[in-house]
Structure formats: C-alpha cells, structure tokens
Amino acid sequence: MINAASLVINALIGIGKLILGLYLLSGWFITNAVYYLILCVAKGQVLHQYKVAKGIASPRNRYSLELAVYKRGGLLLCLLGVSYSIVCLRMYLIGDAFIYSGGIVYIVAAVAFTKLAFAIQGTWANRQLHNPIISTLKMINFTDAMVSIVVTQATLLTMQASPLALKTSSLFGMGCSVLFCLMGVWMMFHKTNQSSMEQENGNDDK
C-alpha cells in the first residue's frame, strides 16, 4: 500500500513537472520529469509483476518470473541513474534548478527523510526474505529516497546563502547516479540465491 501510494505521488510530480517544463520551456523541469516518470514505470511494473507472481502456483515458474523482474529492475535502475545524472549535470554546468522557499522547504525535508526512513525500515523488516521482486522494490525505494535527500541538501544550502549550494548538491547527485548505475549493473548480472525456491519445491514434493 505504501509503495502504491508512493507511485501515485511520484506520477503526479512527474506529470506536473513535465507540464511546467513544456509551458515554461524549462530544461530542468523536463529532465526532472523524465527521471520521475522512469521511476514510476520501474515501480509500477514491479508492483504489477508482484501481483502476478502471487497468483502463480508453481514455485519454479514464480521464481523465474521474479528473477526476470529483478534483472529488468536493474536495467531500469541504470536508466534512473543516467536520467538523474543529466539533471545534476545541468545543475552543475548551468546552475539550472528550481529552489523551494518559505515553509515548503520544511515539507521537502520532511518528505525526503520520511522516504529514507521507509526505505531503511523496509530493508530491515524484509532482511530475511530472498524474494527478488521485494529486493527490486527496496532498491527503487532507496534510489527515490537518495534523490529526495539531494533535493533537500540543495534547498537547505541555498537557504543559508551558500555560494556553492548547487555545485556541491549536483556533485553529490552525480555520485548517487553512479551508485544507482552500479546497483543496476549488479542486479542484471548477479546470480541470486535459489535456496528459497528449492526449499519451496522440496516442500511441495513432500
């Protein structure tokens, strides 16, 4: 339910930024919108496949679907990293960014740390599960949380009139983008542990 709610919120943000970008002819809004829409596609397809997997009776077939979702999630994570690196590169080279002000700053910060808290809580609560789809969701939620932290950093530093607010935030964001891409590559080529699937098969045979 939390992931579904997050999907709706991110979709509204992405569509809103795309409309603003086209209306204002703002490259920053458009590139941000592309990132959020890719994020929505990634999370949406994972949630859909999770529902499909729950309806598959055969553990072997279910695991094959989950593994395919996991590897496809890695590809989408790489796309997220590339799209967000473009956002940060524009911020670094052009200083192109929309900075929040007033009370909205505290809302942005609260949302960012809430996302991070949910990402950490989800990882901890499901640490004993080896379901590839759940692992994919954890990776996507971590990515979403880190991007929110970058936005919060840029906003707070700008409030303090830091002359290097955008430069430092964009460098931090590009570092996060590299991390997202590395996570995605690892997911695409990582051979996940099949012990849970084999255990299910053993239980079914009994």
Keyphrases for this structure?
single chain, 206 residues, mainly alpha, 84% helix, elongated, disordered C terminus
Number of strands: 0
Gap between N and C termini, in Å?
34 Å
Calculate the mean pLDDT score and round it: 78
Gyration radius over CA: 19 Å
Shape category: elongated
Which series of helices and strands comes N to C? HHHHHHH
Main β sheet profile: none
Bin the strand percentage. under 5%
Task: Return the structural class.
Answer: mainly alpha
- Estimated helix fraction: over 70%
Catalogue the unreliable spans: 194-206
Could you please describe the fold and organization of this structure?
The chain is mainly alpha-helical and 206 residues long. The protein is built from seven helices and no strands. The protein has helices at residues 2-24, 27-54, 59-94, 104-125, 132-159, 165-189, 195-205. Helix 1 (2-24) runs antiparallel to helix 2 (27-54), helix 3 (59-94) runs parallel beside helix 5 (132-159) and helix 3 (59-94) packs antiparallel against helix 6 (165-189). The longest helix is centred in the middle third of the chain and has 36 residues, at 59-94. The radius of gyration is 19 Å and the shape is elongated.
Give a short overview:
The chain is mostly helical.
Summarize the topology.
Blueprint: H1 2-24, H2 27-54, H3 59-94, H4 104-125, H5 132-159, H6 165-189, H7 195-205
Helix pairs in contact: 1-2, 2-3, 2-5, 3-5, 3-6, 4-5, 5-6
